[in-house]
Amino acid sequence: MANALQQAEVVASNEFVSEDQRRAADHVRTVKERQKQALNLQRENILSQRTSSPARRAALEAALKQIEDQIQAIG
What we know:
By secondary structure, the chain is mainly α. It has one domain (about 10-75). It has helices spanning about 20-50, 55-75, and strands at about 10, 15. Strands 1-2 form a two-stranded antiparallel ribbon. β1 and β2 form a beta hairpin. The longest helix is centred in the middle third of the chain and has 30 residues, at about 20-50.
């Protein structure tokens, strides 16, 4: 009996996915997760900053908007 890790995965369309394709998909998923983590850390940093300067506040709001757009684009 073959080990579950050695068996080819089956996608929704009932096509077999090679081990290389699975690894590539896992790599892409991992890269996206790391990007999201980094962006979330930047977002938390911006949210933790307090300022009374209107110009600085506007810059922080713009940076926050950009980061949130990037997070949304990643999915």
